[in-house]
Amino acid sequence: MKVSARNQLPGKVTKIEQGMILVEITIELDGGGELVSVITKGAVENLGLAVGKKVYAVVKSTEVMVATD
Q1: What is the value of pTM for the model shown?
Q2: Taking every annotated instance into account, which residue ranges of this chain make up the domain Mop (predicted)?
Q3: CA–CA distances in Å: residue 11 to residues 19, 36, 41, 46, 66
């Protein structure tokens, strides 16, 4: 698979929390840290997501905000 997004973060699924329509997927990144994504139930089924599955968090954005305390 090739995608245009430069930010492709490998990791594995550590938690799947089902909602009525959307599902919250927690990914433990290979480089450390954790990322949470909210996707549809259909996407979870199409991707065959399960806890322990290796995935890529793909981030494509036209804007990234930076904040400080």
Answers
A1: 0.84
A2: 2-68
A3: 23, 11, 20, 18, 24
